Amino acid sequence: MTARPLTIDVYPAALVIASDGVMKGEPLSFADELVMDDVFQITAGAQMTALDLMSDATGLHRTHAGENIVHLDCCLTLMAPDGSTHEALILVEVEDDTVAEIFLLPLGELRSGVDYRLVGVARHTATRRFAEAASGSFARGTNISMADGKMRAIETLQAGDMVLTRDAGKQPIRFITQATLRATGSFAPVVITKGALHNDNDLVVRPDHRLFIYQREDQLGAGRSEVLIKARHLIDHSTVVRRRGGFIDYFQLIFDDHHIIYAEGIAAESHLIDPRTRHALPKGVSSPDHAHRPHLDYEVKDTLIRADQTATLLRKASAR
Fold this sequence. Notes:
The protein is mainly beta. Strand 11 and strand 12 form a beta hairpin.
């Protein structure tokens, strides 16, 4: 299995300090050292940092730092002063059998300077929750192009329905998974507004869902006409925006292979089954990891991303 890249936004544990309780004054740690009912704060002015990982059959590794192993330690439940609860994952980087760094991955929005009481530590759900966070997903209401040329809302589809794919013609859906998540923080959906990429309606997807764009002119300097790009890299705060607040229903379409399909007229990837995402499959559903497909090599490097310009450049490059 080819190693696949993944970038997540995290807080280093050194920036999450116990403001009250047994660990008062100490930084956040892993499950064995945590004490229930302790209160934690993200320090004022703390910024999330990008953590570059590689995922393969052996687990997660840092892309840099000697490819150290990164363990999914546990899933925390934190209670805010207003009584609302928030989930976050603890990731532990190990070097030479010693803890090198600890990271907090919020699964919603956590604010600096706010007291969050630790009310739950689950060791056995971290892998599943991480898989859900790493999965590309379409929001409820997304219209998918079917094999017969019609478009249907994703929530009306079922296993066996034939979908139009870019490279393999008509393909049957094998499974559909669905999750309802908080539309907050770094997991708030990305909205590609009507017309941003020549789409007839808004397309709402998870931030790391990848879109497949054909450039008539290589505006990005990628060296190829076809590019695969994450939705969050298109955000320009005008035609491509984040939608925060409340909850959102996400759906994943799973085929026998990883395909490029059409959502609101935009070519986009189907759900990719690999070691990091398979744990999000429902109980009783099994699927082999998807084989490497040529289009996965077309992902745009971060160094080519031009902040606030990429959507405009791709709209111009893909103009009919």
